[in-house]
Design goal:
It contains 12 helices and 16 strands. It has 403 residues and is an alpha+beta fold. It folds into 2 domains: 92 residues, no CATH class; 273 residues, no CATH class. The strands form 4 sheets. A 5-stranded antiparallel sheet has the order 10-4-7-6-14, with helices on both faces. Strands 1-11-12-13 form a 4-stranded antiparallel sheet. The protein has a 4-stranded antiparallel sheet with strand order 3-2-15-16, with no helix packed on it. β6 and β7 form a beta hairpin. α5 runs antiparallel to α6 and α6 packs antiparallel against α7. The radius of gyration is 25 Å and the shape is globular. The two termini are 34 Å apart.
Amino acid sequence: MIPNHNKNVFKQIFNEYWSEFQSMNSEYQTEYYDSVIKKMLGCGDSENGFMVYRCLFCGEVKRIPFSCKSSFCLSCAKIYRDEWVEYISKALFSGMRYRHVVLTVPEQLRKWFYHNAELLSKFMKTGHNFFEDVVSYWIKKPVEVGSVVVLQTAGRKGGYNPHLHILCTSGGITKEGKWKEFGFIEYKLLHTKWQYHLLKMLRENAEGIVDVKCEEIEKGIDKCWKEYSEGLVAYIEKGDVPSGGKGIAYYLAKYVVSPPISLRRIIKYDGKRVRYWYNDHITEKRKEEEIEAQEFIGRMVQHILPKGFQRIRYYGLQATCKASKIREEIKEIIKEKEGIITGTYFVTGYRERIKKDFGIDPLRCSKCRKEMEFEGIWHPRYGWIINNWDNFFSEEEKEYAYG
């Protein structure tokens, strides 16, 4: 039995059952899925590349293997998140107040999204269109809002549950160039508007949805109109999320890069079955489930998005091309409102991250405690990309030092 504190338990499950799982599930017998799994399994292995640091006082050498930095690797989830933090923090308007909106999909419609990546893209665009419509309707004036839309496909239990997390500006710009705040919005309006936009999008794209007949889609949409008389679940999290800049990037990143499960949630693995826990959405209490290893793999890999798919997208005022042009204009608007909030969080490097998380300096020599110096980078395909010691060591000496 392998307890959940073993960080390699996730890898071991895939090492032992991935081939068998593939043989029984032809849709996963592709080069792309193989590359994702191979990347995760090779994380932290020196054979896949490493950096070298050397102590100039005692000669101690430290080899730091490359991490895969994949969102599917549980060991790299934090590293992947930190890198996203820097990227996202630069895209947001410093000082802007944002609101967090969550949009869901009824269970009977979720299967339509699974094999339709183009539908997922339109789903994300629909999320932005919905919110801009809601704000314009609420303040009784057409406005352009900014939104950062994040797609998540995993439910708390690990099942396929596509939903959107949207960070949107707390107001919008009118055609006259004036800023309008939207304040409180009734939930009933959110529910009915989201139902209209989602079902309208599905109906307009019915012919392009694979593995589902148009007649079945029409019946499903009509059924949703009847069953959900109060609209679909859509809500704004209470209160403002942290203002643009400091704090906001971390807030969003946890939704962008959250893996289907975390290592701490895997209770045990006995070589055949996996036991894990989750917080039940209805009771908010911890529940445990034990399933076959192959079923566990299936629950995980169904959340691997198609190659090149962008899980996070920017619309309206946040669209990359527009945001760069109006950034100064937005800054002036915020100044007029209440004074700009300064400060942006930037990601820290490997050394700073280890110091922060574990309270140790990884680049202090373990023998003499002197600071180690960067020596080189080795790549399995290209060999020594950087080697600062070419003039000091022979090939035999380097082979002896690095193995």
